[in-house]
Write a structure and sequence with these properties.
2 copies of one chain form a homodimer. Chain A is built from 13 helices and 7 strands. With about 325 residues, chain A is of the alpha/beta class. Chain A folds into 2 domains: about 260 residues, Rossmann fold; about 30 residues. The first copy, chain A, has a 7-stranded parallel β-sheet with strand order 3-2-4-1-5-6-7, with helices on both faces. Chain A is globular, with a radius of gyration of 22 Å. Chains A and B meet through α3, α8, α11, α12 and α13 of A and α3, α7, α8, α11 and α12 of B.
């Protein structure tokens, strides 16, 4: 591919074959990885990136499904990156769901890609952002990340998206407690799905209580809570409107670019760290190093002394 | 302190003042950090490290409290590192709990240290492991890490402990679901606390179902589920016996040292990455770099190209 970057001329939202091929190459982390991402980079920055997260069973994929249909009905294109192992997009969940998904995936201007949750080198966050860059360069108006909100992944998604919303259900009480700190940091708004079930009012008021503790002033964005019943297509318009509202808020306060800069900074720091780890991986497999680890465990060498030695090895190696 | 490492002669489980001072110095990440940890390292490796985690409200601190009393009754010493923001050990929870904790903390051979959950440079994992090294070098028989099982922290704790157990309550259904993958990786056994409440049998059988999916052969350690009512001191002896049982299992299969080696390897890799980030922090604040980030966001420079430039800067800097 180094001989011709002409693939760029053919990269568009309807060339799903090329998109898939590029994402696969990027995922493999092979020698073409940097080349592809550097080549497409100048065409990125136009897609609006949406993060959807929440606990398993909250109906994230039903919401995504309906949201995609709404976006398509507005003549906009959308690429979806599903990193949720329980999502029908990425192979989990019920057959019925999966059939609905493949319907959506077959629509023109819609591309779905599922990605493994356990990344190798570089981890999930890198790969999803790299794949989003490919979709962005292809010209999609929107890129949606769908991921299950457990542990690190909800932070990863906020690291990838311009607007992130969290899908909950009335039964999510425990999950809300557990995710509290994380949720507060990442959610631009909440969707209370399955609002045809008992207990949704008290779930909403519990969530509202948590949100009250968020620091804010008159210029702050205040996360709303949107009621939805995804299976009946209720609340989807409101979700889309809230995404647009948040986008306008970011624009008005010059935060879109500012946030993207902050995310770029983190991304670059991550790339640097992973690259160094990768360059050191040979060294980590050497007998010399394994012996040094023995010395650490038996107490004759401290981990900080060994780390210093490794840094010296790294700097001396050009 | 560089002039005299004589503090080592005074470091013992009853010199709580010196222990506190050393942990504080280590926490601050100042110039003495490496020196202290390297000096004490040869005296580490004797403490058995226990990790206690679980969702908020499961009663981890009640369990810890009772376990500490049991350990003391066996004439053994124990240092506790509480990294759970909801724990009375680290300042959260009810006044009654806190009073009980300070009782335990005042016993001879018991030292309690709470640590902030949001670490600065190096993160939580480093600091807790560094602090545990101080306790280990002071001669404590056991070091207990208590942390809330949300997200990354449960993996951090498994990265720090020889034996880790997860405390759950009958109501933890959602938390079990959410933590499923993480739990399977880290729990050497489970404690179902508050077994005087309805629903504990079905919670235990649900957990057992999940455990069935764990790969194992005849030599595998199979995580047990221990019933407890911490407030009535029920199940605590069984917990301690299970810790000893797991310890014997590790010994018998030469896994104690093997696991410690694997954890050392990860620790050293983390130290190396953080050290590089720290050494680059000046550079990350330079105008030149901030301009480069602008170029990345506007599309004229790719993040991978910038990462390459940074690595070059790093290697050229000695």
């Amino acid at each position: 591919m180094s001989r011709d970057i002409t693939f760029l001329d053919n990269l568009n939202v309807d060339n799903k074959k090329l998109i898939s091929r590029l994402i696969s190459k990027v995922e493999e982390n092979n020698s073409e990885h940097d080349e592809i991402l550097s080549a497409i980079h100048k065409n990125t920055g136009n897609a609006y990136r949406i993060g959807i997260t929440g606990p398993p069973g909250a109906g994230k994929s039903s919401i995504t499904n309906q949201l995609v249909k709404l976006i398509v009905s507005k003549n906009k294109s959308v690429g979806i990156i599903a990193v949720d192992p329980t999502s029908p997009f990425s192979g989990g969940a019920l057959l019925g769901d999966r059939v609905r998904m493949s319907e959506v995936g077959g629509m023109p201007g819609v591309y779905i890609r599922s990605m493994a949750t356990r990344g190798s080198l570089g981890g999930l966050s890198h790969k999803t952002i790299d794949a989003a860059d490919v979709l962005d360069a292809a010209g999609f108006d929107f890129v949606i990340f769908e991921t299950v909100g457990v542990g690190q992944s909800e932070l990863d998604i906020a690291q990838a998206a311009d607007t992130t919303f969290v899908v909950l259900v009335p039964e999510s009480g425990d999950a809300i407690q557990a995710m509290k700190a994380g949720l507060m940091e990442i959610a631009d708004f909440f969707v209370m799905n399955k609002c045809d079930r008992p207990g949704f009012e008290s779930a909403i008021s519990a969530l509202r209580t948590i949100l009250m503790f968020k620091d804010h002033d008159e210029n702050s964005w205040l996360p709303e809570i949107i009621k939805a019943v995804a299976t009946e297509n209720k609340g989807i318009t409101e979700i889309f409107e809230n995404i647009e509202k948040h986008r306008n808020y970011l624009d008005k306060h010059d935060l879109l670019i500012k946030n993207r800069k902050a995310r770029s900074l983190n991304r670059i720091k991550d790339i640097v760290k992973d690259r160094i780890n990768f360059e050191l991986s040979d060294f980590y497999n050497q007998e010399k190093f394994l012996n040094a680890i023995n010395e650490v465990v038996t107490g004759s060498l401290s981990p900080y002394q060994l780390a210093e030695q490794i840094l010296k090895v790294y700097k001396d190696k050009k």
